[in-house]
Amino acid sequence: MAKINSKPAGSVTHLFIYILTFLLLWEWLRPIPVITHTADIHIFVWFAFFSAILIYLRVPYWLIIPALLAGSIYGLHILFYEGSFLSREGGWQTVKLFSGEAWYNTTLIFSGEFAGLTDPFRTFLLFLLLALVCYLLYFSVFQTRKIFFFLLSTVVYITVLDTFTPVEASAAIIRIVIIGFFILTLLHMLKIQDEERAIGRRTASFFSPAWMYTLIFMILAATGVGMAAPKPDPQWSDPVPAMRGMVLGEGSGSGSGLKRVGYGENDERLGGGFIQDDNPVFTAEVDDASYWRGESKHEYTGHGWVSDPVYEEVGGDDLGYTKYESLTETEERQVSIEMKEGVGFSHFFYPGQVQSISLDNLSFYVDDNEGAREPLTFMTDPVGGRVMAETPEGNEITLTAYDLAYEDPAFPIGTMRTVSENDPQEIQDLYLQLPEELPERVADLAEEIVEDEENRYDKVKAVEQYFSESGFTYQTQDVPMPEEDEDYVDQFLFETQVGYCDNYSTSMAVLLRTLDIPARWVKGFTSGEEIEELEDGRSVYEVANGNAHSWVEVYFPEVGWVPFEPTQGFDNYAEFAEEEVDIDIDLDEENGEDFEQPDQDRDDLIPELEEGADDFEAAGSEGSTGGGGPGLAEMFTPRTLFISILSLVFLMVLYQKQSRLQNYYFLIHYKLLGQDKRFSTAYRRLLWILENEGLPRGEGETLREYAKRVDLVLSSQAMMKLTKLYEKVYYGGYEPDGEWEALQTEWEELVKSLNS
Amino acid sequence: MRNRQEPSVVTHPLVHRLIENIEKVVVGKKREIELSLIALLSGGHVLLEDVPGVGKTMMVRALAKSVGADYKRIQFTPDLLPSDVTGVSVFSQKTMEFHFRPGPVMSNIVLADEINRTSPKTQAALLEALEEGSVTTDGETRELQDPFMVMATQNPIEYGGTYPLPEAQLDRFLFKFKIGYPSKSEELEVLNRVEKRHPIEEVTPVLTLEDIIDMKKDVKKVFVNEKVKEYIINIVNATRQHHAVYLGGSPRASIALMKAGQAYAFMQDREFVVPDDIKYLAPYALQHRILLNSDAKLSDTTNERVIHEVIQQVHIPAGKESVR
């Protein structure tokens, strides 16, 4: 055998880093079977391992190249050819076949026909690549001592795969981060050793146990905290659908996917989880943020809400739907809505109480044909408030843009507290309905919640608040579907206590009804995300499927229907006129995601008329939620921000000034402990402090020489005095006799002059 | 040497007086005088390597006269016999017996001039006296006087017809150093002093031999802390491990360094040895005890430089290291 230079450069530390680096390389190979059709990935891993070892052992080139070639041919044999490798038909055949292939493929490469390369040759190229990567890693660890770029690209690679492919990288990312920490720290240690060698403080490389303990402890602590800390759901929704929508133009119609969030029609069976979908539905130009109302439903079945809308034909200039009564002050406002392409709604979404539709700016299409300005028939369900349009022939249309006039309300709280509670009979008929199977305990709970409250408004607020205080958790996944014989509200209130807006709003409506307070269930969208502020003070909001939402409207005689928001993490945008009221209208509006209702499928509306024009409201709020508990909103209040910043600054100052503080500590420490026997420790502490302050004693420097130097630097004479005494004590074996007391001020002066 | 400019630190009154007395004759050689006294007080011997005429003899004579010591000078030549050094027994016709006639070595202070000019046999006779404190002639061992100190010189210029001292014998000298030329002003001072009459004539004893013997006893009482001993050992050890060194310091080197340290501390009126003493003395005590390897000899490396490197690197104990 030839002279194999089997003495690898570097220390055990190097080897350790190299092994870690190889583990990182492994992370690159792991997901390949999931995203491609590659099988037998372990062969590639073994090959990479083989190359890494050869490279580490610094096998000379004339040996390493044949060895790697043989290795890759063996790999190819396993992957593509038959028979035992060592038999005549096996390995030799493979070599022959492969050389033929290689020749053929080389010609292909030179003629630029890369698509025609055969599979074995591609595999061979991958082997080659792996060997090269191993060499590069060796080089970067042993020569340049830089690995950060590789680490970073590993992280990017894994996260991109995790985001856009089925690869599940939760464990991989933890492994990578831990390995990465180790590599970076160890490399840093090597660098520091080099520097120390350069200035002659150390002669040999070493493996600092203190360094390792700290490292391991820090990594354990960091990962431990990471594991234990609460993890909010992603604040950005999955970018893939959005990108796909953007790139491929895939629309987001109503109720598109089965499990997607969005505005649907059928609410007969509520429950179950859903997944987020952030495809936009429409944009709206409006004065203020408010909820977008689609319709309300009033009949609760025990599993969901049904309505049997009866539409009445109305003119575009008077839609004939009222929510607010005489005591509610309103202001006329305008809104322009533009639906996103591919979104098909034939009914309108509106804030507040819709008044009229501007025919000028109305656009739509019928059966995929751009709707000419043909006349439309507008129809309103006076009970549910659903306003829709169709062609005179009764064909369904898809609205693309419309302008609305609406009434923006301000609800008088004082009035709401004092108005009579005598509801009109038709209100009572429609909005106090409850299924007979509703369990008793729901009503009992309602009584319990409001037992201290006197008037309707406070009772309603108590019920609304109940959900934020009583251990309910907002979540959109893992929400169980009620059984056939189970009541939706009962299940949420007493069994699961986890859910999303439908659970909260339905429960609130039902609880109120058991108290004989008329309430109805409203669906629509939250205000959406403000994407642009216009010069005239108006804003453009973008509303997405994820903003689909449901809430509650409660009837107050002479005031009308007032919106309430029981869902955790959402804020009611409705304006309440008096300040005495403790409605938590918060500063924060939009954080995080918004909401929606679960999947719905179909639509079941039939135009019909209804008499009771009740009063309505516009309301809205929006919010966000993480995994229950306080929303992001609460986490970013000025107070918490202030406190966090303060403590951060404090920590920084502490870190910055640590040596100062330390020195002050020792000043006081030795002042209090002035006995002579403390002198030695005090002197040694002084040496330690001096070293900390960048004035270390040289290796071959005697105390006297050092003292001279220190005194020169600090222009004092104290160090020499202290040193003479210390020499006496330390080398001469004397017990100090009162000298320390005399010198103590000198000691303090020294430390103070260091601090200044 | 880096600490050549440092002022003398001798504060012991008797030693101080002694040095002042010698300085009446020798101009500007305080450091060398001190080193000689350290050798005297710690029972060691000195090898001076220098050109002729720089005052070696004057210094030794002044020292001897200052303490009222018996002084002899031996000029070593190739034909000098061991008995010329140690003494010889002669037959007395009168008494019909052999009488021992003591050689020059049987005195307190001996100047062995150009020691490398004589044959190894004669050198060995002298050097036995250095180490043992006794000489053996005619099968009889005779004690030398106390105090006893040899100051040997060798001329670094002329190597023709010389017998360089072997390592084993160099090791017996406590110190090796140079006296060196005086500066211009010092030389002028020398001329002024000898213009009328040589000052050596006027030197009178300021101490007695008994004083020296007492001081030698006191030197042995100077405390050497374990840490300082450790430091000495580390230095000597480091010379053995230095890459340019073929043969490093022996344990005798460690002993010499410690004893010299004690004497130096004593001269500073201190009752314990500090690392500074050791560090200061190490070059004088060690440089003649190491042998460079051939690579180092071909390069610029010198013994002095090696010792200097070593003392810069060896850690000096200064307390519990855990406090660092």
From TrEMBL, chain A:
Transmembrane segments: 12-29, 41-57, 62-81, 121-140, 147-165, 171-190, 210-229, 636-655
This protein's UniProt keywords: Membrane, Transmembrane, Transmembrane helix
InterPro entries: Bact_TGase-like, Papain-like_cys_pep_sf, TgpA-like_C, TgpA_N, Transglutaminase-like
Domain Transglutaminase-like as annotated: residue spans: 493-568
Gene3D superfamilies in the cross-refs: 3.10.620.30
Pfam families listed in its UniProt record: DUF4129, TgpA_N, Transglut_core
SMART domains: TGc
Keyword Transmembrane: yes
Record's keyword annotation contains Cytoplasm: no
Protein name per Swiss-Prot or TrEMBL: Transglutaminase-like domain-containing protein
Source taxonomy: Bacteria, Bacillati, Bacillota, Bacilli, Bacillales
UniProtKB/TrEMBL annotation, chain B:
Coiled coil (UniProt feature): none
Record key words, sorted: ATP-binding, Nucleotide-binding
Chain ranges of the ChlI/MoxR AAA lid domain: 238-309
Pfam families in UniProt: AAA_3 (PF07726), AAA_lid_2 (PF17863)
PANTHER family registered for this protein in UniProt: METHANOL DEHYDROGENASE REGULATOR, MOXR FAMILY PROTEIN
Name this polypeptide is given: MoxR-like ATPase
GO molecular function: ATP binding; ATP hydrolysis activity
InterPro entries with a match to the protein in the record: ATPase_AAA-3, CbbQ/NirQ/NorQ/GpvN, ChlI/MoxR_AAA_lid, P-loop_NTPase
Domain annotation ATPase AAA-3: ranges: 45-175
CDD domains the UniProt entry points to: AAA
Family stated for the protein in its record: Belongs to the MoxR family.
